Structure formats: structure tokens, C-alpha cells
Amino acid sequence: MAWTALIRDVEHYVRGILQQDFHWLIISASASLLLAGLMYLLFSKQKSTRSLSRFIKYCFPRQVYRHASSKLDLQFSISSLLLNGLLLTPWLVSSMAVANGVVDFLYLHMGAEQSLPNGDLWPSVCLTLSTVVAMDLGFYISHYLQHKLGFLWAFHKVHHSAVVLNPLTQFRQHPVDLLLDGTLIGIMTGMVIGVFAYAFMGVAEPLTVIGMNVFMFLFHLSGSLLRHSHIWVSWGIFNRILISPAQHQIHHSTALRHQDKNLGGMLAIWDALFGTLYLPRERETLSFGLKGGRPSSYTSIWQLYLEPVVEVTSGIYKRAHFLDLKHVTARAHRNNPGVRSISKNIGGQ
Q1: pLDDT in tens, 292-321
Q2: What pTM was estimated for this model as a whole?
Q3: Is the N end or the C end of the chain the one with fewer CB atoms within 10 Å?
Q4: Residue ranges per domain, the chain?
Q5: Which DSSP string corresponds to 44-94?
């Protein structure tokens, strides 16, 4: 059935997040290099001295790619490639399971499916676009929670601990981050697929290019790898609709005005709706890393994996210890009037 093919396409994308799928990586790398070349031609200050060697230095500056943070990105990417797919894929909420649940629910409450009229291409276009929108909404929700909830921020700090940005920085993500991303994306896309599977059974088919959702393909052609780089690319007025590489670089900025801004993956509409959109008027000078954080806590692979766990568990222990201490003190106050009077006297000093 067409909808099962779409589900496989979505699940391939979700697993690609974990396993660094090389198809989109090659496409995105090629497109990003071409876009970087265009930026070099348009904005290089010494146009009379353009050369291939200068272009290479423009794309791969030593101060970025020889930085300890970039070397750690490479090490962490290799470890992620080996570990994340093995450890996390089985735990993902499957979009197939969610879609089946939605179809069963609709069958139960609305009866057997009545396929809507087929209008040539439009059901497939709607299906393909709706899936991408659902993916992006799932990512936005996950990203928003990672920034707003303290225990999730402890894990998401791993990604923001990079003090220089390079394309491998996107793989500097703790497994807990990836688990939440993949689960919410699976839920959101599964719901959309279930509705389309019920309404367009056997009619709507996803539009793909080399096996990839056509809108995802276009996204990667827009230079998605430049989002984690030093190369500033802004879409101008279209920044209100699509997240540009410049906007995501701003998201990594330590400046207070940039804090928790531009949380969207592909689309800026969620940021606009929920008040997290930041639109740059011109190129801004940015510093990356953790503002007020402890950079020394994120300088090795083991620290990137274990520091968030230590932070969360120690926070839980301290909170539990504090609550237990309050409980013991309150019980002592109830049972011993002398304790109450001592506490009162101390408090009055």
C-alpha cells in the first residue's frame, strides 16, 4: 500500500537522524559547498585575488577546524555512528505503530474508509508536505522542551557546548536528545500518515527524489550543513518562513538577545507562532558555547556522555535530600515544642 511506503520513508528519515544517513549527507555536503562558493564569489573582499586556495581557506579556516572543539566533534561523531543506532533505534516510537493506531481509531469511530476523490497529483503533494510539516513540528516541540526544562537542558547542553561550529557539530547530540527528537517526530508523522492512510487508501503516494521526501531533498539542497558553520547565509524576507543557516548560527550564540531563539528545524513558522523567532537585519558577530557554563566539563567524549547524567542525578539527589530534610524538620516541630521554640528564637535573631 502507498501509505506503508510513506511510513517506511519517514522511519528511514528518523533513523537517519540517529545513524547519519550518508545519502542526504552527500547531497547536503555537495549543495553546501556550492552555496559556500557562491557566498565566496559574492562577498569576498579581495575579488582581484580570488583563487582555489583562498576558497579552501574560506571554507575550512584553520582557527575553526584545528580547534579542540572541532576535533571533539569528529570524535563524538564517530562514537555516535557506532552507538546511537544500536542503542536508540529499538526504543523509538515507531511512526508505523502510531499510524496503525490512528487508522484503527478512525475505523472504530467512523467506519470503513471512504477514499476521498482523487485529483491527480494533489493528494500526493498534500501528503508529502504534511509529513514534512509534522516532522518539523515534532522537532520544534522536542527542541523547545530541551531549552525550557532543566533536566532536558542538561543533555541538550552537550550540543551547545561547541565553541566553534562546523558541519560535524550537528552530530554532537546526547543520545537522550536524539531519543526525544526521534520519538516526537515519530508520533507527529505517524498521526498525519494515519489520517492520510484512512482518507486516501491506495490513492496518495509520497513524492520522492532518489528515495527521499522531495521537500526534505530541497531542504538539503539549500545548504543545510552550513547551519553549523562560520559561513553566514541568510534568506532575507524568507527568514520568516524558512530557518536559514544564519538563523541557526544565531541560535547557538551566547548573546542574551539570542537566547532560546530560532528553535525550528526547517520552518520558521513555529518560532513565529510561539514567540521564539529572531530575524537578523544584517550579519552579526557571534560567540558560541555555553554562557555561564563550565567549558572544562565538556572537553572529552566521556564528559559529553556522562556530565549530563551526573548533573541530572545529583540534582535529583539534592532535591530529594532537601525534601526529606524539610519533612524531618516539620515532624520534629510537630512532636517537640522545644524545637519549635528554638527555631522561633533562632528565626527572631
Answers
A1: 656 667 889 999 999 999 999 887 656 654
A2: 0.81
A3: C
A4: 2-299, 310-348
A5: -S-GGG--HHHHHHHHS-HHHHTSHHHHHHHHHHHHHHHHHHHHHGGGSPP
